[in-house]
Write a structure and sequence with these properties.
- This is Superoxide dismutase [Mn], mitochondrial.
- Keywords: Oxidoreductase.
- It is an enzyme of class 1 (oxidoreductase).
- It comes from Linderina macrospora.
- It is a single chain.
- The protein is mostly helical.
- The chain is 50% helix and 10% strand.
- A hairpin with a 5-residue loop joins strand 1 and strand 2.
- The N and C termini lie far apart (38 Å).
């Protein structure tokens, strides 16, 4: 008999989607918290507009369609249709969640981009990696090694409560492997090609100039609090 576990998004996946508007409600593309030109010269306004208004919007549109079809299949108790929709839910749902984090992870240099201030996150980075420079080298090295499209991540490992550096393929989310996303680097070509052509290593190097460390630090504090509460 077919397991019903594959007939709906996982709890972690559902929570990620719910935080962006609810699994059964219509998803929308979040507004950018800055102008398209905010991240120049690291990321051009043209890329930001295409990336946000076209690519992210496509994930959202396709996710809404997939969830409508899932609801119809569940109402009809059509198990085969529910199973067939899982790939679309995972891909487009991940694309929506990952990009929604990505926009918040970035900020222009003139507004504090690239500046990691004293605090719990900085202490953890220095204890585990030695320095921010060594952390960025680790993230860039793993992200550059992705075969095809995907993401590089700084996460909180849900099993250990420690910082971790991982990659995910395509639009898979860190939550799918038990990690809490703190900082995501989009390694899809649409994120950099108009500016950097095939020299993606320059994109990976320069993006650290526009990281919104206040956002990453807040995600870290929340993730640590949740982890500690789960152990009590």
């Amino acid at each position: 008999m077919l397991s019903t576990k594959v007939l709906a998004p996982s709890k972690q996946f559902a929570r990620s989607l719910a935080s962006l508007g609810g699994v059964r409600s219509k998803h929308t593309v979040p507004d950018l918290p800055y102008d398209y030109s905010e991240l120049e010269p690291v990321i051009s306004a043209k890329i930001m507009q295409l990336h946000h208004d076209k690519h992210h919007a496509t994930y959202v549109a396709n996710l809404n369609v997939a969830e409508e079809k899932l609801a119809e299949a569940q109402a009809k108790n059509d198990v085969s249709a529910q199973v067939a929709l899982q790939a679309a839910l995972r891909f487009n749902g991940g694309g929506h969640v990952n990009h929604s984090i990505f926009w918040q992870n970035l900020i222009g240099e003139k507004n504090g981009g690239g500046q990691l201030h004293d605090g719990a996150l900085k202490t953890a980075i220095e204890q585990q990696f030695g320095s921010l420079q060594k952390l960025s080298a680790s993230v860039n090295g793993k992200t550059a090694g992705i075969m095809g499209s995907g993401w590089g991540w700084l996460t909180l490992n849900g099993a250990t409560g420690k910082l971790d550096v991982i990659t995910t393929a395509n639009q898979d989310m860190p939550s799918s492997v038990g990690h809490v996303p703190l900082l995501g680097i989009d390694a899809w070509e649409h994120a950099y090609y108009l500016d950097y052509n095939n020299v993606k290593v320059d994109y990976f190097k320069n993006i650290w100039r526009v990281i919104n460390w206040k956002d990453v630090a807040k995600r870290y504090d929340d993730a640590v609090a949740t982890y500690n509460a789960s152990k009590n």
